[in-house]
Amino acid sequence: MPATAKICGLTTPATLDAAIAGGASHVGFVFFPPSPRHLALDRAPSLAARVPDRIHRTGVFVDPDDALLDAAIAAARLAVLQLHKTAPARVAAIRTRFPAIALWPVVAVRTRADLDAARPFAPLAERILYDAKTPDAAALPGGMGLRFDWRLLDGFVHPRPWLLSGGLDAGNVGEAIAATGADLVDVSSGVETAPGIKDVDKIAAFLKAVRLS
Ligand SMILES: O=C(O)c1ccccc1NCC(=O)[C@H](O)[C@H](O)COP(=O)(O)O
To answer: Across the strands, what pairs with 105?
Structure first.
């Protein structure tokens, strides 16, 4: 089965349409004001309306409160919540509040020991997202084009289905899929010309590389 891809941090109709036309299985909308990819709630409904229901609208959050989740889920008709820096107890509460929405807690990886953080999410998550750990002082917990050593996943017994993220682009995603066996990959800055500026040609090239993997 070929791998599929999520294009993250989409904020314009043209780039969203490029992700849809290129065969993305998931599109990501970031709800985090410090991010250059932040999507204001009032812009979400018109973007979400462009997305066929077979493509999973994914909201990206950093330890969100219920008010933000309620508003973003309604505005963007989200099918998946990607949860950065969200503790297992909080993910459990979100699971209870939104039983019909898929949850993807993020495990930030720099060392093999970091993977242990995946285990407490096992009963709560549809997938675990492995992303590169950003520096402690970084403004963002993701979307920085950083890659972790994919060999850290060798032999790891994944507690749930998972996806691979961090520093991927059209030039390395085939190697990443071959090295890790990922069936779903996620990209943001690798399909941009500058932080927050997505590029339709880079999106098409990335999705083609995933298709050919
Ligand atoms: O992209 C952001 O600005 C962002 C902000 C806050 C939390 C998460 C964010 N992005 C998460 C993603 O899903 C990215 O696609 C993932 O970290 C990979 O990013 P990149 O290495 O740039 O492809």
So the answer is: 83
Residue whose C-alpha is closest to residue 24's, from 194, 213, 212, 208: 208
Our answer on whether the CB atom of 64 is closer than 6 Å to any ligand 1 atom is: no
pTM here is: 0.96
Please give the Cα distance from 8 to 185 (Å, whole number).
Answer: 10
Query: What digits encode the pLDDT tens for the residues 57-92?
Result: 999 999 999 999 999 999 999 999 999 999 999 999
Write the ipTM.
0.97
Distance 197 CA to ligand 1 centre (A): 13
- pLDDT single digits (tens) 14-34: 999 999 999 999 999 999 999
Q: Which pLDDT value is given to residue 138?
A: 87
For the chain, what are the domain ranges?
4-211
What is the CATH topology of the domain spanning 4-211?
Answer: TIM Barrel (3.20.20)
Residue 118 to residues 37, 49, 110, 160, 181: CA-CA distances in angstroms? 26, 33, 13, 8, 18
- How far, in whole angstroms, is CA 175 from its chain's centroid? 19
Atom of ligand 1 nearest to the CA of 37: 3
Sign of the alpha-carbon dihedral angle for 143, 186, 125, 98: positive
Best residue among 140, 173, 207 to mutate for probing ligand 1's pocket (most ligand atoms within 8 Å of CB) is: 140
